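Side project, low priority. Logging it here so it doesn't get lost.
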Amino acid sequence: MDIITTLLDFILHVDQHLELFVQNYGVWVYALLFAILFIETGVVVMPFLPGDSLLFVAGAMCGIGLMDYAVLVPLLFVAAVLGNQSNYAIGRAIGQRVFQWEDSRWFNRRAFDQAHAFYEKYGGIAIVAARFMPFVRTFAPFVAGVAQMTRRKFTFFDVAGGALWVGGIVTVGYFFGNIPWVKTHLDKIIWAMIFVPGLLVLLGSWRARRRADAA
Protein backbone atom coordinates (compact mmCIF):
# COMPACT_ATOMS: atom_id res chain seq x y z
CA MET A 1 0.00 0.00 0.00
CA ASP A 2 2.90 2.36 0.80
CA ILE A 3 4.33 1.72 -2.67
CA ILE A 4 1.02 2.67 -4.33
CA THR A 5 0.76 5.83 -2.20
CA THR A 6 4.34 6.83 -3.04
CA LEU A 7 3.81 6.19 -6.76
CA LEU A 8 0.56 8.18 -6.79
CA ASP A 9 2.26 11.07 -5.01
CA PHE A 10 5.10 10.99 -7.56
CA ILE A 11 2.66 10.99 -10.49
CA LEU A 12 0.54 13.85 -9.17
CA HIS A 13 3.47 15.95 -7.95
CA VAL A 14 6.06 14.97 -10.53
CA ASP A 15 7.07 18.62 -10.95
CA GLN A 16 8.10 18.92 -7.29
CA HIS A 17 9.92 15.59 -7.25
CA LEU A 18 11.85 16.32 -10.45
CA GLU A 19 12.86 19.79 -9.32
CA LEU A 20 14.12 18.37 -6.03
CA PHE A 21 16.03 15.67 -7.91
CA VAL A 22 17.69 18.28 -10.14
CA GLN A 23 18.72 20.30 -7.10
CA ASN A 24 20.23 17.24 -5.41
CA TYR A 25 21.72 15.31 -8.33
CA GLY A 26 22.01 17.73 -11.26
CA VAL A 27 22.57 16.11 -14.66
CA TRP A 28 21.66 12.67 -13.31
CA VAL A 29 18.05 13.72 -13.90
CA TYR A 30 18.58 12.84 -17.58
CA ALA A 31 19.46 9.26 -16.65
CA LEU A 32 16.41 9.07 -14.37
CA LEU A 33 14.05 10.30 -17.09
CA PHE A 34 15.60 7.98 -19.67
CA ALA A 35 15.12 5.00 -17.34
CA ILE A 36 11.50 5.85 -16.48
CA LEU A 37 10.51 6.36 -20.11
CA PHE A 38 12.31 3.23 -21.27
CA ILE A 39 10.70 1.09 -18.56
CA GLU A 40 7.21 2.50 -19.15
CA THR A 41 7.35 1.80 -22.87
CA GLY A 42 9.58 -1.28 -22.76
CA VAL A 43 8.28 -3.43 -19.92
CA VAL A 44 4.75 -4.69 -20.40
CA VAL A 45 4.10 -4.97 -16.64
CA MET A 46 4.91 -1.28 -16.01
CA PRO A 47 2.07 0.66 -17.72
CA PHE A 48 1.37 2.83 -14.67
CA LEU A 49 4.53 4.96 -14.87
CA PRO A 50 3.92 8.66 -15.70
CA GLY A 51 4.82 9.14 -19.37
CA ASP A 52 2.79 12.12 -20.61
CA SER A 53 3.00 14.14 -17.39
CA LEU A 54 6.72 13.43 -17.10
CA LEU A 55 7.36 14.77 -20.61
CA PHE A 56 5.20 17.83 -19.98
CA VAL A 57 6.88 18.70 -16.68
CA ALA A 58 10.35 18.05 -18.10
CA GLY A 59 9.54 20.47 -20.92
CA ALA A 60 8.40 23.06 -18.40
CA MET A 61 11.68 22.66 -16.50
CA CYS A 62 13.58 23.23 -19.75
CA GLY A 63 11.57 26.45 -20.11
CA ILE A 64 13.03 27.84 -16.87
CA GLY A 65 16.56 26.59 -17.52
CA LEU A 66 16.69 23.62 -15.13
CA MET A 67 17.27 21.26 -18.04
CA ASP A 68 18.52 21.57 -21.61
CA TYR A 69 15.80 21.16 -24.25
CA ALA A 70 18.34 20.27 -26.97
CA VAL A 71 19.68 17.41 -24.84
CA LEU A 72 16.38 16.23 -23.35
CA VAL A 73 14.32 15.72 -26.51
CA PRO A 74 16.80 13.52 -28.44
CA LEU A 75 17.61 11.53 -25.29
CA LEU A 76 13.98 10.78 -24.43
CA PHE A 77 13.20 10.07 -28.08
CA VAL A 78 15.88 7.35 -28.01
CA ALA A 79 14.43 5.99 -24.74
CA ALA A 80 10.93 5.86 -26.20
CA VAL A 81 12.04 4.12 -29.41
CA LEU A 82 14.26 1.59 -27.65
CA GLY A 83 11.53 0.89 -25.10
CA ASN A 84 9.04 0.06 -27.83
CA GLN A 85 11.61 -2.08 -29.64
CA SER A 86 12.22 -4.06 -26.45
CA ASN A 87 8.50 -4.53 -25.86
CA TYR A 88 7.97 -5.60 -29.47
CA ALA A 89 10.80 -8.15 -29.21
CA ILE A 90 9.28 -9.64 -26.05
CA GLY A 91 5.86 -9.95 -27.69
CA ARG A 92 7.35 -11.49 -30.83
CA ALA A 93 9.30 -14.04 -28.77
CA ILE A 94 6.36 -15.04 -26.59
CA GLY A 95 3.87 -15.06 -29.44
CA GLN A 96 0.48 -16.69 -29.21
CA ARG A 97 1.02 -17.98 -25.66
CA VAL A 98 0.02 -14.51 -24.43
CA PHE A 99 -3.63 -15.10 -25.35
CA GLN A 100 -3.77 -17.84 -22.71
CA TRP A 101 -2.56 -15.61 -19.88
CA GLU A 102 -5.05 -14.65 -17.18
CA ASP A 103 -5.39 -11.34 -15.38
CA SER A 104 -2.91 -11.13 -12.50
CA ARG A 105 -0.86 -8.76 -10.40
CA TRP A 106 1.75 -8.52 -13.17
CA PHE A 107 -0.45 -8.73 -16.26
CA ASN A 108 -3.47 -6.51 -16.98
CA ARG A 109 -5.62 -8.67 -19.22
CA ARG A 110 -8.19 -5.93 -19.88
CA ALA A 111 -5.53 -3.43 -20.98
CA PHE A 112 -3.97 -6.07 -23.24
CA ASP A 113 -7.34 -6.88 -24.85
CA GLN A 114 -8.07 -3.18 -25.41
CA ALA A 115 -4.67 -2.65 -27.03
CA HIS A 116 -5.13 -5.73 -29.18
CA ALA A 117 -8.59 -4.59 -30.38
CA PHE A 118 -7.18 -1.12 -31.10
CA TYR A 119 -4.26 -2.59 -33.01
CA GLU A 120 -6.47 -4.95 -35.02
CA LYS A 121 -8.68 -2.05 -36.09
CA TYR A 122 -6.04 0.55 -36.94
CA GLY A 123 -2.89 -1.47 -37.72
CA GLY A 124 0.39 0.43 -37.84
CA ILE A 125 -1.25 3.78 -37.13
CA ALA A 126 -2.19 2.33 -33.73
CA ILE A 127 1.51 2.30 -32.82
CA VAL A 128 1.63 6.07 -33.38
CA ALA A 129 -1.74 6.88 -31.78
CA ALA A 130 -1.10 4.64 -28.78
CA ARG A 131 1.85 6.82 -27.79
CA PHE A 132 -0.65 9.37 -26.51
CA MET A 133 -2.77 6.85 -24.58
CA PRO A 134 -1.67 5.79 -21.08
CA PHE A 135 -1.60 2.01 -20.53
CA VAL A 136 -2.37 1.32 -24.21
CA ARG A 137 1.05 2.66 -25.28
CA THR A 138 2.76 0.07 -23.07
CA PHE A 139 0.81 -2.80 -24.62
CA ALA A 140 0.68 -1.64 -28.27
CA PRO A 141 4.28 -2.61 -29.20
CA PHE A 142 3.91 -5.85 -27.28
CA VAL A 143 0.73 -6.64 -29.23
CA ALA A 144 2.47 -5.77 -32.50
CA GLY A 145 5.13 -8.33 -31.64
CA VAL A 146 2.54 -10.96 -30.72
CA ALA A 147 0.77 -10.26 -34.04
CA GLN A 148 4.09 -10.75 -35.87
CA MET A 149 4.20 -7.31 -37.49
CA THR A 150 7.43 -7.09 -39.50
CA ARG A 151 10.33 -5.37 -37.75
CA ARG A 152 10.75 -2.91 -40.62
CA LYS A 153 7.12 -1.78 -40.56
CA PHE A 154 7.04 -1.60 -36.77
CA THR A 155 10.24 0.45 -36.62
CA PHE A 156 8.84 3.00 -39.08
CA PHE A 157 5.74 3.63 -36.96
CA ASP A 158 7.76 3.38 -33.73
CA VAL A 159 10.15 6.15 -34.80
CA ALA A 160 7.34 8.36 -36.15
CA GLY A 161 5.25 7.94 -33.01
CA GLY A 162 8.19 8.46 -30.68
CA ALA A 163 9.15 11.71 -32.41
CA LEU A 164 5.60 13.08 -32.29
CA TRP A 165 5.03 12.03 -28.68
CA VAL A 166 8.29 13.13 -27.11
CA GLY A 167 8.85 16.20 -29.28
CA GLY A 168 5.23 17.30 -29.09
CA ILE A 169 4.58 17.01 -25.36
CA VAL A 170 8.00 18.28 -24.25
CA THR A 171 7.56 21.30 -26.53
CA VAL A 172 4.06 22.02 -25.19
CA GLY A 173 5.46 21.86 -21.66
CA TYR A 174 8.35 24.13 -22.66
CA PHE A 175 6.04 26.89 -23.91
CA PHE A 176 3.02 26.49 -21.62
CA GLY A 177 4.17 24.61 -18.51
CA ASN A 178 5.23 27.72 -16.60
CA ILE A 179 2.07 29.75 -17.13
CA PRO A 180 0.73 30.54 -13.63
CA TRP A 181 -2.72 29.03 -14.30
CA VAL A 182 -1.14 25.81 -15.60
CA LYS A 183 1.16 25.52 -12.58
CA THR A 184 -1.75 26.10 -10.20
CA HIS A 185 -3.90 23.41 -11.82
CA LEU A 186 -1.12 20.99 -12.78
CA ASP A 187 -2.55 18.13 -10.70
CA LYS A 188 -5.89 18.41 -12.53
CA ILE A 189 -4.10 18.58 -15.89
CA ILE A 190 -2.18 15.41 -15.02
CA TRP A 191 -5.40 13.60 -14.10
CA ALA A 192 -6.91 14.72 -17.41
CA MET A 193 -3.84 13.47 -19.32
CA ILE A 194 -4.33 10.08 -17.68
CA PHE A 195 -8.09 9.63 -17.83
CA VAL A 196 -9.30 11.41 -20.98
CA PRO A 197 -7.31 9.21 -23.44
CA GLY A 198 -8.22 6.15 -21.35
CA LEU A 199 -11.93 6.96 -21.55
CA LEU A 200 -11.66 7.41 -25.31
CA VAL A 201 -10.04 3.96 -25.61
CA LEU A 202 -12.71 2.38 -23.42
CA LEU A 203 -15.44 4.02 -25.49
CA GLY A 204 -13.87 2.81 -28.72
CA SER A 205 -13.49 -0.71 -27.31
CA TRP A 206 -17.12 -0.75 -26.12
CA ARG A 207 -18.39 0.42 -29.53
CA ALA A 208 -16.24 -2.17 -31.31
CA ARG A 209 -17.67 -4.94 -29.12
CA ARG A 210 -21.22 -3.77 -29.76
CA ARG A 211 -20.64 -3.85 -33.50
CA ALA A 212 -19.07 -7.30 -33.22
CA ASP A 213 -22.01 -8.60 -31.20
CA ALA A 214 -24.48 -7.13 -33.68
CA ALA A 215 -22.70 -8.69 -36.67
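Brief comment: DSSP finds eleven helices and no strands in the chain.
Revisit when time allows.
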